[in-house]
């Protein structure tokens, strides 16, 4: 069977099914996945995209990780650990496509966002909805 990306790049439709056997799937060029729905048991998915938030103890993060988060005071990525020094742990926005975010998704749950990559892990599957243009 061809990899899902082969079908997606051909523009064969707006919905695609992915499971743990395919690996990370990306939408067609200049498109996002706007939602995914877990069609299996509760499980773990990894995603990349825009406007994703992740809980992190930013004050204790390594320099290689700090720069992957947006400083809420400036709206720009942290430049180094000194800038993150003293900041409280909490939800920080991830720089677009800079980091893979792990999500626990319940059975039947739909997650909305602007995803540029989705990977089903465990023994679950999802419907991926293509839409939205990106630069």
Task: Summarize the entry for a quick read.
Helix content is 10%, strand content 40%.
Briefly note the CATH topology name of the largest domain. Answer: Jelly Rolls
Number of domains: 2
Low-confidence stretches: 7-12
| β-sheet strand percentage | 35-45%
Overview of the structural elements:
- The protein is mainly beta.
- Helix content is 10%, strand content 40%.
- The chain is built from 3 helices and 8 strands; from the N terminus they run H-E-E-E-E-H-H-E-E-E-E.
- The chain has helices spanning 4-9, 63-66, 81-84; strands spanning 15-19, 31-38, 43-50, 53-56, 90-93, 101-105, 110-120, 125-133.
- Strands 1-8-2-7-3-6 form a 6-stranded antiparallel sheet, with no helix packed on it. Strands 4-5 form a two-stranded antiparallel ribbon.
- The radius of gyration is 16 Å and the shape is globular.
- Mean pLDDT is 85; it is low at 7-12.
List keywords for this structure.
135 residues; Jelly Rolls; 3 helices; 8 strands; 10% helix
Draw up the topology in text.
Blueprint lengths: L3 H6 L5 E5 L11 E8 L4 E8 L2 E4 L6 H4 L14 H4 L5 E4 L7 E5 L4 E11 L4 E9 L2
Antiparallel strand pairs: 1-8, 2-7, 2-8, 3-6, 3-7, 4-5
